[in-house]
Design goal:
heterodimer; A: alpha+beta; two-stranded antiparallel ribbon; 13% strand; elongated; B: mainly alpha; Cytochrome Bc1 Complex, Chain D, domain 2; 2 domains; two-stranded antiparallel sheet; 8 helices; 2 strands
């Protein structure tokens, strides 16, 4: 009595196995077919949803297309007319065809503009990689600590530059002594036969004062305290006595105040390192032969 | 026998459900990409799909700078994405998508990088334009007075605190300072280049205090957002753009 039951059970099991096998094969085929015709870069029959066209398998991106519509006609996809859509698409297909033809003709080897654009594009690509990497706060703080002297406010000064007759050093010395207890007034200047330089006198940043005074006088001025004169300084145009009205020296920034600039400097340094690294790699793998006469 | 039939049936149902789920996801992703970005919020199923996926992308890629809720950080010049005030474009999904795709000063060729706030308190305010002159500390103080007056910050019971400084600042803004060139003659900014509106009380950097404004004018600003196009792919970019849009327009129900 048992035997027929076993036979029937085996037959059922075999049937199930075939069904599973068949189902597995069918699912595998469907997945393989789907992947073959839709995966990025292998699509042959279907335009992927993120693109508006494939030109010799090169995609024209939908977002570029929408952007171009906006740039050319100031409309979004929804409000563009059929003519506008066609015009933009035709233009983009034409551009893609010409770019592909340009590659075939290897225009980069002859056209300096294309070469320049390619060099620029590769440099930008490297920089974009550096920008994508977000440094941690600790990295930024370490960078700040290592370059602390770069981060300070610009100093501000208000200085008077009194110019005396080059032959009258005694008056200049007398004036410098008097200015220790009194600010220069037009009356005093008249008594001393001195003139006040118009290049300075207003409140200005250190960099501007340096330009207006010249390096030598600026170096003296930045060391002066408020309401103090310098000693006489002999120059080609006369004897100068500087009188410091107010001197706010550069104040070092703390990390919070400098963070923005630290971040920029950190990124610029990263870009520099990446570019140098990429160039070293390209040189290392390249086969460069140099003519004998240039060695 | 019954158990085997049941387990076969369960396995079959699971496969069917998984297949249906994948197909539905593929269908929605295709619809999302093909749809005009502006119409996505009007399609609840699409909006909900994009929002859920966008939220997860935002958490993993954007929240580190923009904050988990998109609240930003004004001490670092990171905008509040919830306030409906847009520096670049109008806040439409396609505009947000553009920023996510190509970034801001990201070194991508298509990035937003036309405007950089010059550092007027330095010897060379702009690396790009050597004709932009530095300003004096007094000029910067006058500009700050003018800006704070424009923003309604510097008046006591309607009385202006330093009208002479404000007048000098206004003249600088419209003249030698060259501020009008980016921020517009009325100071309302230009979203086509990312120049902020200086007449409202929304400040990208700092709290609008004289110190914060002085810092911006003296040392310049140039915030950065990376280009995500190669890392998120078109679908990811659109999904996160939809999520960012929802931060100021409300999440889908």
């Amino acid at each position: 009595m048992k035997e027929p039951e076993t036979l029937s059970s085996n037959a059922g099991s075999n049937r199930r196995s075939f069904v599973f096998l068949g189902s597995g094969a069918a699912i595998g085929l469907v997945l393989a077919g789907y992947a073959l015709f839709t995966a990025r870069g292998t699509s042959t029959l279907i335009v992927p949803p993120e693109d508006v066209a494939l030109v010799n398998q090169q995609p024209i991106s939908r977002s570029d297309y929408v952007q171009q519509l906006q740039t050319l006609f100031g409309v979004d996809l929804q409000h563009a007319t059929a003519d506008q859509r066609r015009k933009v698409l035709d233009d983009m297909i034409r551009e893609e065809l010409f770019v592909q033809r340009g590659k075939e003709l290897d225009v980069a080897s002859t056209d300096p503009d294309v070469r320049g654009a390619m060099v620029g594009a590769v440099e930008l690509e490297i920089a974009a990689d550096a920008i994508s990497a977000q440094p941690s706060e600790q990295q930024l703080e370490d960078y700040f600590a290592a370059h602390r002297d770069h981060y300070a406010s610009e100093g501000v000064m208000t200085v008077r530059d009194l110019i005396f007759d080059p032959a009258d050093s005694a008056t200049a010395a007398r004036a410098a002594a008097a200015l220790k207890s009194a600010a220069p007034t037009p009356l005093l200047l008249a008594q001393w036969h001195a003139r006040s330089s118009t290049a300075v006198g207003d409140e200005e940043f250190y960099f501007a004062a340096k330009i207006h005074l010249g390096e030598r006088l600026f170096d003296v001025a930045k060391g002066l305290a408020d309401a103090t004169p310098s000693t006489p300084i002999t120059a080609a145009d006369g004897i100068h006595v500087l009188y410091m009205v107010g001197n706010h020296r550069p104040v070092p920034f703390d990390f919070a105040a400098a963070r923005d600039r630290v971040m920029n400097d950190y990124r610029n340094d990263s870009i520099g390192h990446l570019r140098a690294g990429d160039e070293a790699f390209l040189r290392k793998r390249a086969n460069v032969l140099i003519a004998d006469d240039l060695h | 026998m019954l158990n085997k039939t049941l387990s076969t049936a369960v396995a079959g149902v699971c496969i069917c459900v998984a297949g249906a789920f994948l197909l539905q996801r593929h269908r929605l992703e295709g619809q999302l990409l093909r749809a005009d970005a502006a119409t996505v919020p009007t399609k609840p199923a699409l909006m909900s799909y994009a929002w859920r996926r966008g939220r997860s992308i935002f958490a993993s890629h954007c929240a580190a700078c923009h904050g988990t809720d998109g609240q930003g950080d004004s001490t670092r010049g990171i905008p509040d994405l919830r306030d409906g005030d847009w520096l670049y474009g109008t806040g439409a999904i396609s505009d947000i998508e553009q920023v996510v795709n190509y970034g801001i000063r990201s070194y991508h060729r298509k990035a937003w990088n036309l405007a950089i706030m010059p550092a007027y308190g330095t010897a060379h305010p702009s690396a790009r334009d050597s004709k932009i002159p530095p300003l004096s500390p007094g000029n910067i103080r006058d500009l700050v007075a003018f800006l704070r007056y424009q923003q309604g910050r510097d008046s006591v019971h309607g009385e202006v605190t330093d009208s002479a400084a404000i007048a000098r600042g206004a003249a600088l803004f419209a003249g030698a300072g060259g501020c009008y060139d980016c921020h517009g003659p009325d100071g309302k900014g230009d979203p086509a280049i990312g120049a902020p509106d200086l007449t409202d009380q929304i400040t990208l950097y700092g709290d609008g205090s004289p110190e914060a404004l002085t810092q911006s004018i003296s040392y310049g600003r140039a915030g950065v957002c990376p280009a995500w196009i190669t890392r998120l792919g078109p679908a990811g970019v659109r999904e996160v753009a939809v999520y960012v849009y929802s931060l100021s327009h409300g999440a889908p129900r």
